[in-house]
Specification:
five-stranded antiparallel β-sheet; about 30% helix; 10 helices; 4 domains; alpha+beta
């Protein structure tokens, strides 16, 4: 009889029962798990035929280097933990069943469907104009198997499109679905290449759209021209958030403006600070201005004239002044406001 260590963590074991592949499909780039029986997964980009609740569709395998013996190396819970949104908020869904790898005939059929979809979109726009509906069509998605056609649109208010659906169903002889989306989802569907030269993040890989506010642009010294820091959706670009944590951390290390400090070049008043270079601009008592690294700065007096005590920084170890820097004021309040706006948009969708 052998002793086993019950405290030792058990590694996730893949079995034929839970063999799943991660696939991106649909106009909105939905991610889903699909059950399959393949023993080996190709390392090249692969299109696959999948069966979803919408019908037969074509998708693309995600994470082609993350498979071993046909099974995904990470568990579904790993992806839930990665997105940090909980099981209910995770953008990866249980998609359905893998049918086969897409053949040349499948890809050719997809091409013909996309060409026909353009004509279907024009027809829908014509019917909308005839009915004088306040709808702006964004795009069309013709499901590969022909089970349904989905029209994505934006509108200022709720629209009664029941008569429109009846006419389109009669015209195309299939199920019609009208889906109202918000500005961000519209950008995800119709956006193209951004000024950085890359396809929009929300269309390419970004699944969780977190709030972005003007404070982030100010802290990163970005231009405040709305036309240059706004994305295809008309809102602040999501990429402003990518480095915000680093900028805020570096900003807290700088002493506040109007602090009196001591350096190797003499005493003076802080007039500015460079976040990335971590240089502090100081005006000496004789009016000269010089810059020194933040490591060489010793704080003597706070902006309100109180003597600086190192114990003040115990609760804020990254901030030499014992509190957040000027650029961080009301940052969390703006985040909350933006979050409420996003929830309102989601309700409208």
């Amino acid at each position: 009889m052998t002793d086993t260590n019950t405290n030792e963590p058990q590694k996730h074991k893949h079995s034929p029962i839970d063999k799943k592949m991660l696939v991106r499909y649909g106009k909105t780039g939905q991610l889903g798990w699909f059950v399959h029986d393949e023993k080996v997964m190709p390392k090249a980009l692969s299109k696959v035929m999948i069966k979803t609740e919408r019908g037969l569709e074509i998708g693309e395998v995600v994470g082609r280097f993350c498979y071993k013996s046909g099974a995904f190396k990470k568990s579904e819970q790993n992806l839930v933990d990665y997105y940090e949104q909980g099981a209910e908020g995770c953008p990866v869904v249980s998609g359905g069943r893998f049918v086969r790898y897409a053949t040349a005939q499948d890809l050719s059929e997809e091409h013909h469907i996309n060409i026909g979809a353009k004509q279907e979109l024009k027809k829908c726009q014509q019917v909308i104009a005839e009915m004088n509906l306040p709808i702006k069509l964004i795009d069309i998605e013709h499901v590969f198997g022909g089970e349904r056609i989905i029209f994505y649109f934006t509108a200022e208010t709720r629209v009664d499109f029941r008569e429109l659906v009846k006419q389109l169903a009669k015209e195309f002889q299939t199920r019609i679905e009208m889906r109202q989306v918000g500005s961000r989802d519209a950008a995800k569907i119709a956006a193209d290449v951004e000024v950085c030269g890359q396809v929009c993040c929300c269309q390419r890989y970004l699944k969780i759209l977190k709030p972005v506010n003007m404070k982030m642009a100010k802290l990163q010294k970005a231009t405040l021209d709305p036309s240059k820091i706004s994305g295809y959706c008309g809102r602040l670009k999501c990429c402003l958030r990518y480095e915000d944590h680093t900028y805020r951390d570096l900003n807290r290390r700088l002493p506040k403006r109007r602090c009196r400090v001591k350096t190797s070049q003499g005493e003076g008043i802080v007039i500015d600070g460079q976040v990335l270079t971590q240089l502090v601009s100081i005006r000496a008592d004789d009016g000269t201005v010089f810059a020194v690294p933040v490591e060489e700065v010793e704080i003597l007096l706070l902006p309100d004239g109180r003597p600086y005590n190192k114990s003040m920084a115990q609760n804020q170890p990254n901030c030499p002044c014992g509190g957040d820097n000027d650029n961080d004021d009301d940052h969390d309040a703006d985040d909350d406001t933006q979050e409420r706006n996003n929830k309102q948009d989601n309700r409208e969708q």
